Amino acid sequence: YLVRIRRENPHALLALAYNRHAALEIRRRLTELIGDDARRVTVLTCHGLAMRLVGASFAQRSEEVDFDAVLAEATALLEGRDLPPEDADIQRDRLLAGFRWILVDEYQDTDPAQVQLLQALTSTDSTFVAVGDPDQSIYRWRGADVRILRSFKTDFPGASIVKLEQNYRSTGSVVKAAAVAPEMMVHEG
Question: For residue 13, which of 40, 60, 94, 126 sits 20 to 30 Å off, Cα-Cα?
């Protein structure tokens, strides 16, 4: 829609996924939808974006990557910590390289450090769109918490929430079972 109907420059789109497999799937679907323009859309994970922002790569590191430290460093760079406000703005603009659309898939699987990075990414010059389903939060073991999705309006003041009530993926019997017994769909701990 953004590329074909709104005629947005594909370079202005940043799509973030929760893992590399999801990023590859987004890339595959984009290619099916918009062809060669898909190569100009940046599709990464939050960790991949953080590594790009700080100039880190797996090839340069002999030890295991401390993703929490990389996220914190990338967030600090975007926020321009320890810089005068005008220098912080220049640094942030340089790091974001013209991204006007920040699109996040599976927001319910973000953790607090990723939310801080996303908050640092957003600005008055960009449009931030996050998609999430509280019934599909599956990464609690790595810090994701469905309460993060529920606090979206607090974390991103001025945001609009649009609820999509139509299910296009599941069969009618699955939707009916979920509506009758939602407690069966949630597993805590």
Answer: 60
